[in-house]
Design a protein that fits this description.
The complex is a heterodimer. Helices cover 76% and strands 0% of the residues of chain A. By secondary structure, chain A is mainly α. The two termini of chain A are 26 Å apart. In chain A, 41% of the residues are buried. The chains are: A mainly alpha, B mainly alpha. At the A-B interface, α2 and α8 of A face α2, α3 and α10 of B.
Chain lengths: 266, 259
């Protein structure tokens, strides 16, 4: 993928987003207000139960976890399932069959370009506000660097998984359903809603097997310095292998879907 | 076309389009039921890792309250889709509604069969909660409870109308609508007593989300709540009037896309 193409895509996405400034500003300003509910809820839970720690998490840890979870969302969430689903449903996918580019790689880079304004403007602004008003934990430099590395894998894991969900449109046209299904899986198995340490015990073995914890839980735990440097590196390695496995799976499903697409006369 | 014919036509169109995509409709309903349980899941986790959980409310009482929230949201979305207003203003398709002799707001009637997911989720939550809580089930209480649910529906409608009407002034209002919806859903899904008094008062009056599920649940559960929650029905009615005024003001400013 040409770097100039990436840069141009970023410029267009930024221009498009900034065309509606009021909406953008409202998004940045109202976002932290939603976070108040987290603050009140968890403060009440810790105070009412007269505890300083829950499964290794202090009140500040819990609040920081949920704050960083919001930030991670700004980095990873894209409309990849609907983008892929729509291209298949409308027949635009045919273009990628005849073009000398890989549909999966192209989609990942294109969506990353669209995501950059959110990563570079919204996420730091929101983090600053959360730091000022909620005293959110800030990682030291080594953990921060590892966190950024982990976020790259997190982005890839989320988007390759949701890309696979989009590919299911080859067999069943309702891509919206797959988007919801993928979102539900990530919502409950990635540690987005809560630290996995807070989950009921019957769910933990399932989460350990699945790769989704690496989307939210792992990078956040690195940021909160809950993992040592060596453990963090191990997490990155584990994330890397999860990405490779999912990537190969996506390529396989893409090949199968492509055959199906051709057989339909698309 | 009269209002009833319009409702009948739109219901039939929506039903036939859903019948066309049966797999999708059933799958969306099933997955939405799972989504409906998000807060119940968080609540369950909180009660499994702490001794007493959330102040003054048991797990089953919160589940019951969230059930009311799901029921109200299900009933609202089953019949109405005022959020479409933002899209209509942005794309200029509001023009089509303006030339119709029917009231513009009423034209946002929309029979959305997928909203049954919220109602099913609510029923499941009630089945989980009711055997483990004590409810005031006398006839007078039940009648008043139904009235509270109607006011709760009005509260949802007025908040959505107000937020959607911002489209008249800033065209792209997606983030505002989404964020305000988030505030509404996140804050109203927990008992109001976890919030500071000032915020409770705000949610009982200026932005009356306390009425969506907290007040009806507290009433039927026989909970002792601050007096200002009981004046919130008046706030809801006033808020509805302000929302309709704001909508009409925006409509007056609307000039279409010119296309």
């Amino acid at each position: 993928m040409n770097l100039r193409v990436v840069f141009e895509t970023f410029k267009i996405a930024l221009k498009d987003r900034m065309a509606y400034r009021t909406d953008f500003i409202a998004d940045v300003l109202i976002g932290p207000l939603i976070f108040l509910v987290v603050q009140f809820l968890w403060t009440n839970i810790y105070t009412y139960n007269n505890i300083t720690e829950i499964n290794g998490f202090t009140l500040n840890d819990s609040i920081s976890y949920l704050a960083v979870s919001t930030i991670v969302g700004y980095f990873v969430w894209t409309w990849v399932t609907t983008t892929v689903g729509m291209k298949i449903k409308r027949g635009d996918f045919a273009r990628y069959v005849i073009m000398p580019i890989n549909f999966l790689d192209y989609t990942l880079v294109e969506l990353f370009g669209r995501k950059v304004p959110s990563m570079l403007i919204k996420a730091p602004l929101l983090f600053l506000l959360l730091k000022i008003f909620f005293n959110v934990h800030v990682a030291d430099l080594p953990h921060f660097i590892l966190f950024i590395g982990s976020m790259v894998f997190s982005y890839l894991l989320f988007n390759i998984f949701m890309f696979i969900m989009g590919l299911l449109t080859f067999w069943q046209e309702s891509f919206w359903v797959f988007n919801m299904l993928g979102s539900a899986i990530i919502e409950f198995f990635s540690g987005w809603l809560l630290p996995i340490d807070f989950y009921p015990s019957f769910m933990k073995p399932i989460i350990e097997i699945l790769p989704f914890r690496h989307i939210y839980y792992s990078p956040i735990m690195i940021f909160l310095e809950k993992y040592s440097i060596s453990s963090s590196i191990q997490v990155l390695v584990s994330q890397f292998f999860s990405v490779i496995i999912l990537y190969l799976l996506a390529r396989l499903i893409l090949r199968l879907g492509r055959a199906k697409f051709t057989s339909q006369g698309g | 076309m009269g209002l009833f014919s319009y409702i009948k036509e739109k219901t039939l169109i929506n039903l036939s389009s859903h019948a066309e995509y049966r797999f999708s409709t059933i799958a969306v309903i099933l997955i939405s039921i799972i989504f409906g349980f998000t807060t119940v899941f968080i609540t369950y986790s909180v009660y499994s890792i702490t001794e007493k959980g959330v102040p003054e409310w048991s797990f089953y009482e919160i589940t019951f309250m969230i059930g009311i929230y799901q029921l109200i949201m299900g009933l609202y979305h089953l019949t109405f889709d005022i959020e479409e207003l933002s899209f209509d203003v942005k794309e200029g398709t509001l023009d089509q509604k303006l030339v119709s002799p029917l009231n513009v707001i009423l034209q946002y009637y929309n029979f959305n069969i997928e909203s049954f997911s919220s109602i099913i989720a609510a029923v499941v939550m009630f089945i989980i909660a009711i055997p483990n809580i004590s409810l005031n089930l006398s006839i007078s209480y039940l009648v008043f409870f139904v009235i509270l649910l109607v006011i709760s529906l009005l509260s949802i409608f007025s908040i959505k109308l107000l937020t959607s009407s911002t489209a008249f002034f800033i065209t792209e209002n997606h983030s505002i609508v989404e964020n305000l919806n988030n505030i509404r859903s996140r804050f109203s899904n927990w008992p109001m007593n976890i919030y500071p008094k000032g915020l409770q008062l705000l949610f009982a009056t200026v932005f009356p989300i306390a009425f969506i599920c907290f007040v009806p649940a507290s009433f039927i559960l026989g909970k002792d709540v601050s007096f200002y929650f009981w004046i919130s029905p008046i706030a809801v009615i006033l808020f509805t009037l302000v929302s309709v005024k704001f909508f009409n003001y925006g409509l007056g400013k609307y000039s279409g896309t010119g296309s």
